[in-house]
């Protein structure tokens, strides 16, 4: 099951934001995340806030979910337009529908949710609108409905092209179906991203190379490649604890990242974030970039997290509790935190250092602050950051630095 929610302060029953949330908002984009918390089968490695039909219990319904989420969009509109806060009117720059498996909902429900976002705030010209999808959960008709309804992008959970690796991950799709679903998406004009996972117990380096090459054969616009993390409380963690599976090996994962970087770069997909590669800047995930750049977003759905102007909050986890709160006219937020300047700067470093554009150490100055000169010198000596950007006060990771990004952050914030 998914992890416990963070410990924070109580969230206001009406979801109201402090006036501090408006400071600097004119320079921040506004995005919407829509969480669909349903899956046909729970994968053994997954700790996301998702539920199968047998786990839902009474009072929570996939059929009623879109209507419930619309209530939160309406609540969000009221909170963000409160004159006491003073946020400007902002059209939505990006929409991302994640899960779970969003495409377990009827495509008409997903289009209905997007239409309500558009009617509530408007979309900027050329807005990016993405849905995640499992390869076995879409048809040509589903993808055509999504494209006609305003979706611009689909992200397929490929994970691996090797059957025994998929079996270890408890993935149920047939890898042979990927070329078909990608073709269907292309035919209706959708950009295509595929997600891969490396480091699965029993996956050889040859297996991983096969997966990357199979992904590239699809000619995607974007590839995400994530190292497997064994999360506490998952089925896979229990199997590791019982000795049925080995823990992922750090050196093995590093070697697989290097293989991915070599193959993806050679095929014209450049890294723009440590785990993400795009066929040119126009195909980078603008929604995820907004997270890494500290912009604003409202997360709709059970367990969804939001951030507006240094205020972060998270919703109750279970779909039943989520629906009950909204039906009672209450915010579904379970708790929140207001980030102080130190926490916001730490987060800026933690996220910004992962980007290919680099982290500006002293924004607007073009220099390295005195307090970080020794850290920058050390990182250069270790070959973790690029020399020329560092001279101008910007930290850009080398490939070795990407493998040790957390160590770079520790050194910069020590």
Keywords:
single chain, 414 residues, alpha/beta, TIM Barrel, 9-stranded mixed β-sheet, 3-stranded antiparallel β-sheet, 16 helices, 4Fe-4S, HemW-like
How do you describe this structure in short?
Helices cover about 40% and strands about 20% of the residues. The chain is α/β, with parallel strands linked by helices and about 425 residues long. The chain has two domains: about 20-290, Aldolase class I (TIM Barrel); about 355-414, no CATH class.
How many beta-strand segments? 14
* Assigned CATH class of the largest domain: Alpha Beta
Biggest beta sheet summary: 9 strands, mixed
CATH topology (fold) name of the largest domain: TIM Barrel
Q: Secondary-structure element sequence?
A: EHHEHEHEHHEHEHHEEHEEEHEHEHHEHH
Overall number of domains: 2
Strand ordering within the main sheet: 7-8-6-5-4-3-2-1-9
- Specify the CATH homologous superfamily of the largest domain: Aldolase class I
Percentage beta strand? 15-25%
Assembly state (oligomeric): single chain
Q: In whole angstroms, how far apart are the ends?
A: 34 Å
pLDDT averaged residue by residue: 95
CATH architecture of the largest domain: Alpha-Beta Barrel
Computed Rg: 21 Å
Indicate the percent of residues in helices: 25-40%
Low-confidence region ranges: none
Q: Label the structural class.
A: alpha/beta
Number of helices: 16
Shape: globular
């Amino acid at each position: 099951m998914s992890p416990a929610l963070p410990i924070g302060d109580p969230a206001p029953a009406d979801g109201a934001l402090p006036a501090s949330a408006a400071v600097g908002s004119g320079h921040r984009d506004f995005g919407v995340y829509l969480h669909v918390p349903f899956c046909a089968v729970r994968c053994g490695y997954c700790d996301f806030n998702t539920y199968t039909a047998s786990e839902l219990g009474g009072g929570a319904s996939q059929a009623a979910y879109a209507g419930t989420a619309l209530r939160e969009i309406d609540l969000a509109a009221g909170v963000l337009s409160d004159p006491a806060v003073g946020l400007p009117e902002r059209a939505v720059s990006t929409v991302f529908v994640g899960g779970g498996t969003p495409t377990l909902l009827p495509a008409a429900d997903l289009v209905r949710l997007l239409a309500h976002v558009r009617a509530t705030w408007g979309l900027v010209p050329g807005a990016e609108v993405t849905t995640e999808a499992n390869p076995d959960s879409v048809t040509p008709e589903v993808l055509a409905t999504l494209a006609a309804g305003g979706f611009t992008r689909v992200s397929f959970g490929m994970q691996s092209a090797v059957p025994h690796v998929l079996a270890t991950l408890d993935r149920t799709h047939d890898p042979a179906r990927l070329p078909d679903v990608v073709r269907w998406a292309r035919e209706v004009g959708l950009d295509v991203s595929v997600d891969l996972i490396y480091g699965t117990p029993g996956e050889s380096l040859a297996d991983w190379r096969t997966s990357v090459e199979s992904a590239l054969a699809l000619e995607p616009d974007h590839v995400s490649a994530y190292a497997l993390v064994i999360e506490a409380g998952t089925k896979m963690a229990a199997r590791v604890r019982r000795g049925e599976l080995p823990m992922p090996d750090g050196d093995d994962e590093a070697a697989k990242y290097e293989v991915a970087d070599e193959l993806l770069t050679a095929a014209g997909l450049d890294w723009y974030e440590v785990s993400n590669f795009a066929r040119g800047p126009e195909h980078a995930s603008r929604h995820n970039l907004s997270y890494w750049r500290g912009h604003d977003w409202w997360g709709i759905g059970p367990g969804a997290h939001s951030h507006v102007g240094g205020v972060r909050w998270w919703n109750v986890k279970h779909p039943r509790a989520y629906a009950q709160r909204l039906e009672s006219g209450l915010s579904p937020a379970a708790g929140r935190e207001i980030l102080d300047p130190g926490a916001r700067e730490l987060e800026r470093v933690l996220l910004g250092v992962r980007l290919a554009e680099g982290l500006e150490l002293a924004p607007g100055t073009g220099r390295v602050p005195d307090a970080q000169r020794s850290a920058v010198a050390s990182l250069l000596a270790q070959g973790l950051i690029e020399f020329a950007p560092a001279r101008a006060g910007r930290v850009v990771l080398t490939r070795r630095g990407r493998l040790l990004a957390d160590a770079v952050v520790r050194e910069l914030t020590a």
